[in-house]
Design goal:
Blueprint (H helix, E strand, L loop, with lengths): L1 H13 L4 H16 L8 H9 L6 H14 L2 H13 L6 H16 L2 H19 L3 H12 L9 H10 L3 H29 L12 H7 L4 H15 L5 H18 L5 H35 L1 H12 L3 H16 L4 H18 L4 H16 L6 H9 L5 H24 L2 H9 L2
């Protein structure tokens, strides 16, 4: 059955059928060919159960928060401010790409939205200042992936919902690895540009008073992040309530910068409905598929197969890493998460690993999938913002950062405390 499900999944995706529909179709197929019970009779109850969760209400709020910040012009101000602080490094404005992506990751919760925001603002600068298009665009694609690691993260909310684990602890666990990845991206950029200075473009310095004045444009984002994350860990709000507070804060910031208009609000709400609908269709479809898989005995098959291999816990987790890297080439990231979590996570826990730690490791591997062809969404988002050049340039530029993520996955396996230090310290 494992082989039939894999072939069916890849075949339907190859036909460009929407992912959420593919998951439902696979569920119907498993019910028809592998189950002795009429599982589709429970479809209505399954759809209701999968969507009737207060936790999932946080998703449209975080999407709307990001939409407001993007469409109100706050991104342009943030990028200009960070340009004044980091463009003196080897690589120049490439570091502003990564730093801006890091800042917006702390509010948007979406990698694709983060990449789109930075690409829209940064690409005109690359052409004007003569930066290498490969490294410049690759850094934007990689920096955008931080949106699902640094809290608040929509993917971590989905992971916590599917595994019934603590979302605040997941947010805490993602903070250090997310910031460490951002610093590692900047270090890789410095090394590349010291070896090949022609790739880094112009290094610029600004008068210190001008740098200090630029900090004013960073304060609203930092306050918004502190408001969202701080209210969760102070016990004043649940993640869903904090997301609602964040939307209100984003609106006030946009109003203060003069970015509020009827057109902006209409576009923000429309974008929120589209993105949330896509996410919820995938979550509900995956819940139905997982229900049919479990009822048909796939979980037992996989468990028996892995037990038969006689792997040590370390060898097992390395097999899981390779599995996610390979699947990430072909399956959209959120779909990859919701399809595999109910099957893989129970086996990971049997091996003695922590569910919070594995969530962060999975997110790193999902981040890699966002910048690896042929389905790496961030690659297409960045290419869409470019005026010229090929997708191959973005792929090549993202390769060093992809290897950096692989190094982070190795570090997480070798030193689990990278992810678990904050959750354990604040328990």
């Amino acid at each position: 059955m494992i082989g039939y499900v894999s072939i069916g999944l890849l075949g339907l995706l190859a036909l460009s059928i929407p992912v959420g529909i593919v998951l439902f179709l696979l569920g119907f197929g498993i019910d028809a060919f592998f189950s002795s019970f009429p599982l589709t009779k429970g479809l209505g109850n399954m759809v209701w159960s999968a969507s009737n969760s207060a936790t999932l209400i946080a998703i449209p709020f975080f999407v709307l928060l990001g939409e407001i910040l993007v469409r109100s012009g706050v991104a342009t101000r943030t990028y200009a401010a960070l340009d004044r602080w980091v463009s003196w490094l080897p690589g120049g404005l490439v570091h502003a790409n990564i730093a801006t992506a890091t800042m917006f990751s702390a509010t948007s919760g979406s990698s694709v939205a983060t990449a789109a925001t930075v690409a829209t603002v940064a690409m005109p600068q690359a052409e004007k200042l003569g930066y290498d298009p490969k490294l410049f665009s690759g850094a934007i694609a990689a920096g955008g992936t931080l949106g699902i690691m640094i809290p608040p993260s929509i993917n971590l909310i989905v992971y916590g919902f599917l595994t019934q684990s603590s979302i605040p602890q997941l947010f805490l666990a993602g903070l250090i690895p997310g910031l460490a990845l951002a610093l590692m991206f900047m270090l890789v950029t410095v090394i590349i540009c010291m070896i090949r200075p022609d790739l880094g473009g112009l290094r610029r310095t600004f008068p210190f008073p001008q740098m200090l004045r630029a900090l004013i444009d960073l304060v609203p984002i930092l306050l918004l992040f502190g408001m969202i994350v701080g209210s969760i860990y102070a016990g004043w709000a649940t993640p869903t309530e904090a997301a609602a507070v964040g939307v209100a804060g984003a609106f006030v910031i946009a109003l203060a910068f003069g970015g509020v208009s009827w057109d902006m609000l209409t576009q923000s709400l429309t974008g929120t409905v589209k993105i949330t609908s896509m996410i919820m269709l995938i979550v509900i479809g995956a819940s139905f598929l997982n229900f049919t898989l479990a009822s048909a005995g796939l979980g037992r098959e996989l468990t028996a197969f892995m037990d038969g291999l006689g792997l040590s816990p370390l060898a097992f987790i390395l097999v899981v890493v390779v599995l996610y890297i390979v699947l990430g080439f072909f399956i959209e990231t959120l779909s990859l998460m919701v399809v595999t979590i109910p099957i893989i996570v129970p086996m990971v826990l049997v091996q003695g690993y922590d569910v919070i730690w594995f969530g962060i490791l999975m997110i790193v591997l999902i981040e890699m999938a966002l910048i690896t062809p042929p389905v790496g969404l961030n690659l297409y988002v960045v290419q869409g913002a470019r005026k010229s050049g090929s997708l191959n340039e973005v792929m090549l530029g993202a390769l060093p950062y992809c290897l950096t993520m692989l190094l982070m996955a190795v570090l997480l396996i070798a030193f689990p405390s990278i992810a678990l230090f904050l959750p354990n310290a604040l328990q």
